[in-house]
Amino acid sequence: MIPTPNLDHISSKDYENVYEPAEDTFLLLDALEKDAELLRNEIAPCISLEIGSGTGCVSTFLGKILGDGKAPNGLLPRLYHSVDIICCNPPYVVTTSEELYSSKSVIERAWAGGIDGREVIDKMLPLVDELLSDKGVFYLLLISENKPNEIRETMKNDYNLQSKVVLSRLAGREKQSILRFWRDIRQ
Fold it and tell me: Would you say which domain of life the source belongs to (predicted)?
């Protein structure tokens, strides 16, 4: 078992501007740990990217899985079809479009997802196709209101990305799921 990264250096004041790790973050950590052998041995990543990093807890945890020298790198234009692991815990809470764009606090923008909780997600999905390497995997955290099956179909039909639900869990009234996407390069 890989220990959760220590976040003691983050103060309560920091959490006014950074999304505090909660059930969704820990579900993503559990999914990565479940796939640790796949990530180490089959993917053997050179570049990983976390979108919606908040405290950086997921990137730190992924670095522990992969070991020294495999820490996640930043996004650069030169990463076209080069990113081996993409992790994303997007703003997914169902809100109005107005709330998404007019949120006064930074922390509200960390979770406000707009209509169906999908406005940010839908803008990001085409970028995944541009960034993901041939051997790469993309982990996406969703709730049932985000219509995960619709996203899976879109990714398959528009980008030829296969998918699997790695883990699902109830967190309060939210049904959270981690989906893993990958290219079907056997065609």
Answer: Eukaryota
- For residue 85 the two structure tokens come to 């692991």
Residue type, 2: I
Hunting for tokens 């950086």 — which residue is that? Answer: 56
**Nearest C-alpha neighbor of 55 from the set 20, 100, 106:** 20
> Per-domain residue ranges for the chain?
19-90+126-183
Q: Report pTM.
A: 0.83
pLDDT per residue as tens digits for the range 147-165: 999 999 999 999 999 999 9
Euclidean distance between CA atoms 70 and 78, whole angstroms = 18
Give 104's strand partners: none
Nearest CA among 17, 18, 76, 7 for reference residue 47:
76
| C-alpha dist (Å) from residue 67 to 45, 50, 84, 105, 130 | 11, 17, 15, 36, 26
